[in-house]
Amino acid sequence: MTFDDGFVSVVDNALPELEARRIPMTFFVPTGSWGQRPCWVKDSRAKASAQTVLTPDQVRRVGDSSW
After folding, report:
1. Long-range contacts made by residues 49-55, C-beta under 8 angstroms, separation at least 24?
2. Which residue in 6, 50, 52, 63 has the fewest CB atoms around it within 10 Å?
3. By the 8 A CB rule, do 67 and 15 touch?
4. Model pLDDT, residue 65
5. Which residues contact 40 (CB under 8 A, 6 or more apart)?
């Protein structure tokens, strides 16, 4: 399973379920938006504009499976 937006909500919601089912996953995190709203979403009405991208520390925690 891959996720290409690096949203905190994906990690909060998907990671526990995938780990419980032992489903491998890969997260791609756009580093230009660390800890911020996604810079690639231009329409503020889009659902993604309310999301937050992971911080470097959060990415390390995901990698260590200590989320």
Report:
1. 51/5, 51/7, 51/8, 51/9, 52/7, 52/8, 52/9, 53/5, 53/6, 53/7, 53/8, 53/29, 54/6, 54/7, 54/8, 54/11, 54/27, 54/29
2. 63
3. yes
4. 66
5. 30, 33
Both tokens of residue 39? 């810079």
DSSP 8-state assignment for residue 5: S
Residues 6+ apart with CB under 8 A from 30: 5, 6, 38, 39, 40, 53
Q: What are 18-52's pLDDT values in tens digits?
A: 999 999 988 899 999 999 999 998 888 888 888 99
- For the chain, the distance separating the N- and C-terminal CA atoms, rounded to the nearest angstrom, is 18
